[in-house]
Amino acid sequence: MPVIVREKAEKPFVPKPDDDLLVCRCEEVTKGDIREAVHAGLRTFGEVKRYSRVGMGLCQGQTCQRLVRHIIASELGIAIDGVGRVKGRAPMEPVIMKELALSRRDSKGVDDYAE
Amino acid sequence: MPNSRLGKRSADVIVIGGGVMGCASAYRLSAEGLSVIVLERDEICAGASGRNAGGVRQSARDVRELPLAIYAVKNIWPTLGEELGVDTEYVQKGNLRLGRTEAHLEKLRMSVTENTEAGLDLLMVTGTEAREICPYMSEEVIGASWCPTDGYANPLLTTFGYYRRALDNKAIFITGITVTGLGKAGGALRKVYTDDGVFEADRVVLCAGYHSRAIANTVGIDIPVEREDEEVFVTEQLPPMFDQVLGTADADFYGHRTKHGSFLLGGVSGLQHFTSNHDGHPADAYTAPSLSRAIIGFFPVFADVKIIRSWSGHFDACADGVPVISNVEEVPGLTIACAFTGHGFGISPAVSLAIKELVTVGESRAIDVSELRYDRFRAKQ
Ligand SMILES: Cc1cc2nc3c(=O)[nH]c(=O)nc-3n(C[C@H](O)[C@H](O)[C@H](O)COP(=O)(O)OP(=O)(O)OC[C@H]3O[C@@H](n4cnc5c(N)ncnc54)[C@H](O)[C@@H]3O)c2cc1C
Question: The pTM is what?
Answer without folding.
Answer: 0.96
